[in-house]
Design brief:
About 60% of the residues lie in helices and about 10% in strands. With about 120 residues, it is α+β, with helices and mostly antiparallel strands. It has a three-stranded antiparallel beta sheet with strand order 1-3-2. The chain is elongated and about 65 Å long. The mean pLDDT is about 90.
């Protein structure tokens, strides 16, 4: 950041827009397990059991709710393949993939700056 940027006047309208956007993002991502599910699916498509096993402490009913919520938000897809047996696979959408770098940065920041 150069000196001019460091002393630029604050634009209240821009701050309000930014605050509102960050508030919405953290309200959604801060909902317990949403970020963990997205992080799990960042490694690639997975079935319900794979996601459940990879996230310690999440119950099946909560995981089911989070998968529905993330699907409705357009961050993941749910694909059903005819069987037998019928299989369901979850994967990040383009919107979900776009969020991955931000989640990785937040994770790195937390590892460096927050107590365990």
């Amino acid at each position: 950041m150069n000196t001019a940027e460091a002393h630029a006047p604050v634009n209240p309208e821009q701050c309000a827009r930014s605050d509102a956007a960050l508030g919405r993002a953290f309200q959604f991502l801060g909902k317990r397990w949403n970020a963990a599910v997205l992080g799990c699916l960042a490694a690639g498509p997975a079935g319900f059991r794979e996601v459940s096993r990879s996230i310690e402490g999440i119950s099946d009913s909560v995981l089911s709710n989070r998968l529905v919520s993330l699907t409705e938000a357009g961050l993941i897809t749910r694909t059903v393949a005819a069987g037998p047996p019928v299989t369901v696979t979850y994967a990040l959408t383009e919107r979900g993939h776009a969020l991955t770098p931000a989640l990785e940065q937040i994770s790195r920041w937390a590892q460096e700056h927050l107590p365990r």
